[in-house]
Amino acid sequence: MPWDYLLLRFVRRRLPSRLVHALLRRGWVLRPGLETRSPEEAVARYEALLQAHGRSWQGQRVFILGYGGYLGVAAELLHRGAAHVVLCDPYAQPDPRRNARLASQARYASFFHPHTHQPRAAYMSIWHEDVRALAQRRALQPVDVVLSTSVYEHLDDVEGITRALARLTKPQGIHIHFIDLRDHFFRYPFEMLTFSEQTWRRWLNPTSNLNRLRLPDYARVFRAHFAQVNIQVLARDLAAFRKVKPRIRPEFLTGDDEVDAVTHIVVVAQKPRPDAPAL
């Protein structure tokens, strides 16, 4: 058992959320995600997948799950033809300095008020609220496209949130979710799977939450709430998996190393089942 892992996991669990957000914004110790580092690259990746499925966000309402406080992806989506972007993140702390710099760029200026640098309501709506509550009280107009990157692995109720998102999606809508299945102490991508649920939740799970769901879990949830689901494996790490496999708990093993060693997936889901019962 790697003791450096235990030490850093124990410390990470006890870091105040405000400090974690500050470290992420500055890129110190904790590395921010792709949508924060390079919104253009993140949007281009979404766009390529949409095109591969014969779809587009031109003139459509796009929903971003977990925007992290930075409006870069929303602005780039609008620049590339989206009609309106809905951003939803109950934990986000807005980043006014970076958003002001974003608003000052000529390509994005029309999406913001010129003096306050606040987004124009015609183009963006921001909700710091749980998407399950939004769906329950029908607070949003239905959306055409739902996007997320490295958000799903942090959710505490994957089934409930997926059900809510399906209810918010138009019948012809489409979802794209990039999901990182690794332990986010990336040197040990499968180490989190060696602990019982009680030990993980009580002592090691970071404040950002890692739900430890695996490929079959995500397949089951999305297929319950969408009639058409394509899951593409983007990466697997057989060497790292086999090194730790004897210590991995049986509930995380399927018996197929090719499945169990998967580290990154992208889910493309269509034809939502808004009335699907809870699993």
* Anisotropy-based shape: globular
- Helical segment count: 12
Q: What is the class in the CATH system?
A: Alpha Beta
| Biggest sheet features | 7 strands, mixed
Strand content: 15-25%
CATH fold descriptor: Rossmann fold
Number of strands: 7
Lateral arrangement of strands in the main beta sheet: 3-2-1-4-5-7-6
Helix content: 25-40%
Give an account of the 3D structure:
By secondary structure, the protein is of the alpha/beta class. It has one domain: Vaccinia Virus protein VP39 (Rossmann fold). Helix content is 37%, strand content 20%. It has helices at residues 3-14, 17-26, 34-37, 39-52, 72-79, 96-103, 131-136, 158-168, 197-204, 215-225, 238-244, 257-260, and strands spanning 61-65, 84-88, 124-127, 143-149, 169-180, 226-236, 262-272. It has a 7-stranded mixed sheet with strand order 3-2-1-4-5-7-6. β4, α8 and β5 form a beta-alpha-beta unit. The two termini are 35 Å apart. The model has no long low-confidence stretch (mean pLDDT 92).
Considering the chains and any ligands shown, give keywords for the structure:
Rossmann fold; 279 residues; 7-stranded mixed sheet; single chain; 12 helices; globular; alpha/beta
